[in-house]
Specification:
By secondary structure, the chain is α/β, with parallel strands linked by helices. It is built from six helices and eleven strands. Helix 3 packs across helix 4, helix 4 packs across helix 5 and helix 4 crosses helix 6. The two termini are 27 Å apart. 20% of the residues are buried.
Length: 239
């Protein structure tokens, strides 16, 4: 996909915001705020400068709120995939219990996740086994959550989208004009309310492609507490 990059800045309430602009063969404007305070706007190749300026000025307060929320979060700790370590699943913490044996088995029981494998002392083997288990759980949980969210929006006339799951570095979800939704595998570690927020967000994009007032109003109409749910995505977790 052809793309080019540039940058811009603006002053809002005495605060300078530096924004990286990325142009590509896309159809919508999308804004991203990262933990290190970087801000990126992704725009269609032929998007007018006036439209970009209006979009950014309307989102200044949102950008500052996101930066403040991200800065307030504790630094994530590195995972070592060792016995007794805490891992997240659907927003709850579970202790890893590592066992030596065959065949390979990963199973959640009460407040623990049991992992049986030939070499429980090899963190990479534990990571792969746990990752495969997360993917298996996502293949069950995500379609159920999509069906639940879709039924609450079916009256708006959207078609049931296809669902894909993959690892994503900077996004929790995405959608395409071909009625396909992609969810970040790491969402399986978040609470169901947060998963529903991301799915609903992407379903709304099938009707409103940009992050403008109409999109916010649509989100509020189908999920009145979506702003509170959005904060659940920034809780401590490990993709």
């Amino acid at each position: 996909m052809w793309h080019r990059k540039t940058a811009t800045s603006l002053i809002h309430n005495g605060i300078e915001l530096n924004i990286a602009l990325s142009y590509s063969n896309r159809k919508t404007l999308s804004l991203y705020v990262y933990r290190d305070n970087r801000v990126e706007l992704r725009a269609p190749v032929r998007c007018p400068v006036s439209e970009i300026d209006a979009f950014l000025h309307a989102k200044c307060d949102w950008i500052l709120r996101q930066q403040a929320q991200l800065q307030a979060l504790p630094e994530p700790t590195s995972l070592h995939y060792c016995d007794g370590e805490l891992h997240s699943y659907l927003g709850e913490g579970f202790r890893l219990i590592l066992l030596r044996g065959r065949p390979l088995l990963v199973e959640k029981l009460r407040d623990s996740i049991f992992v049986r494998l030939p070499d429980p002392g090899d963190p990479e083997s534990v990571r792969k086994a746990l990752g495969n288990w997360y993917r298996n759980m996502a293949s069950v949980e995500f379609p159920d959550r999509l069906d639940h969210c879709y039924r609450s929006m079916q009256h708006l006339g959207i078609a049931m989208p296809r669902l894909k799951v993959r690892k994503m570095k900077a996004r929790w979800g995405s959608c395409s004009s071909a009625s396909e939704i992609c969810l970040n595998l790491a969402l399986i570690q978040k609470p169901p309310q947060a998963i529903d927020y991301v799915i609903t967000h992407e379903l709304c994009h099938l009707l409103e492609f940009s992050h403008g007032r109409a999109f916010d109003e649509l989100m509020t109409s189908v999920m009145p507490d979506w702003k509170q749910r959005e904060l659940l995505l920034e809780s401590v977790g490990h993709p």
